Prior knowledge:
- By secondary structure, the chain is α/β, with parallel strands linked by helices.
- It has helices spanning 13-25, 43-59, 73-78, 120-129, 145-153, 170-176, 185-205, and strands spanning 2-6, 30-33, 62-65, 80-81, 87-90, 93-95, 100-104, 107-112, 159-162, 209-212, 219-224, 229-234, 244-248, 253-256.
- It has one domain (2-256): Purple Acid Phosphatase, chain A, domain 2, CATH 3.60.21.
- It has seven helices and 14 strands.
- The strands form two sheets. An eight-stranded mixed sheet has the order 4-5-6-3-2-1-13-14. A six-stranded mixed sheet has the order 7-8-9-10-12-11, covered by helices on one side.
- α1 (13-25) packs parallel to α2 (43-59) and α5 (145-153) packs parallel to α7 (185-205).
Amino acid sequence: MKVALLGDTHGNADHIAHALDVFESLGLKTIIQVGDLGVWPGHVAGKMWNKVDESLAARGMSMFVAPGNHEDYDRIARLKVRDDGWLRFRDHILLAPRGHRTLLGGRSIVWLGGAASLDRTWRNHAHKMGYGAGKSWWAGEALTDADVEQTAAGGHAEIMVAHNAPDGVPTIEVSITGNPHEFLQEDIAYAEADRRRFTEAFHAVKPRLLLHGHYHVPVDETVDFGPFATHVFGLACDDEPKSMGVLDLDTLATAFIE
Length: 258
Ligand SMILES: [Fe+2]
Ligand SMILES: [Fe+2]
């Protein structure tokens, strides 16, 4: 069984429509999305997601999401929890609560969305000064100790679907070294503390495969974490190259869609 992989979409309707066309052409019906989906407040975003949902339904597709940091967590907190534990965003777009466990194609999967925004202060400043596009930062983005404990309590899973990635992935470490976007030190400390929590949960799960987004750089490497090794597959964002991929659940092989 093969499934589609989709990087951060940030509510980019044109890109999402294009991705659905690509996945349909490849015969892929199930989409795993790794967060920063674009759960924005307001009716414009709501109408956009209604259209995406209609398009998914027409193609017989479903999208399963580990939410990111740039999402309206007030809205997520109000979503109906289905009997199977998924949060219903739309009929064909389901969001995973943190630590959610599923089986897909015979593979055990744990879902751990969320991350801390490195631009938290800028987003809040713009919002409070009235020159931002409205609220765009939510405290619910960050992992809590309870999230970590719940995820760790479930033990090993073959696949982890997350927005963030743990400390110690060489491609990611290179991409953030030297603070190229000049984030504020207090926000870097906030993000590092959140990533330590994520890393703790990750080490408890010891997945064979990690699927993630957030860093907006493609990652495709097997990392030795000491007691275990994990193939880390990170997707780029929006319409950047390597923002889409395929996972073969029979073999756990991953490939970018070029
Ligand atoms: Fe993100
Ligand atoms: Fe993102």
